[in-house]
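pasting for ref. prot 1 ->
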Amino acid sequence: MERSLRIGVLALQGAFREHARALRALGADVVEVRLPERLAELYGLDGAIRSYPGAIFGTCAGMILVDRRHLDLADLEVERNAFGRQVASFEADVALAGDEIPLRGVFIRAPRVRELGSSVEVLGELDGEPVLVRDGRLLLASFHPELTDDLRVHELFLEMVEEETRVRA
């Protein structure tokens, strides 16, 4: 699918290159945003994320960043490293809502959702636990969809970007 959407990928840590690759494969114009993580507050990145009106996709640490205890953008609470430390990393099939074909999830020091607000939609589960959720304009994953060749989660995000663009227009 050809798109002309411009997407900023925070290149702070983790598999940002893989996110950029997946989004480019779907036709997005990707810009890697580079600011040192420890300077995020100094450079105003926290405030910029809080005030950004468009769709936001957070995976793993990104899910933690936007929960109630941190930037308080998403109506959920997560526990860091709850699926295990780095040595306990694993892959597993994520059951997607409305899709019979599971998505392979890569879980690396993954956060676990401990509490969900009533408006948060569960889009994917692992053993009955939410691991992919949507809270309005936020798409959040405990796992790393960018580390597989399955682009369904990134496709959903680009659909959300288009939706948010229409709403703001």
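and prot 2 ->
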Amino acid sequence: MQLRQTELRLQRATNQVRVDVKTNLINLEQARARYETAVATRQLSEQNLDAEQKRFNYGVGSVALVIAAQQQVASDQDAEIQSMANYTHAKIAFDDAMGRTLEVNSVSMDEAKTGRVQRDSVIPANLPGGGK
């Protein structure tokens, strides 16, 4: 009876790990798509601002339209930054679900035990947008 209960707990834990990994993978893919959309939206806003500034310079546009375009660019930049943060959080959660947080962050248990790190700290190169 105890063996069967232990097997059931193991199966439940295995199923939960599978669900967590799949859920976090979906969240990661969605966050990446939202980030890419935010980048494209910001780029379009910048193009619109450029067009409004040119129209204004040629006497066709108005200051109000230029200001509105500037505000839209600022808003879209904020949205892009937030979506990058959300993507980063989703990546961290996925790595956690996969059990590879230490590996991904190049953390050595030997270094942790001694309290001495043998390398310089750097921003990861695999950030969305190529680490820009």
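The two ends are 58 Å apart (CA to CA).
Residues 8 and 14 are 10 Å apart (CA to CA).
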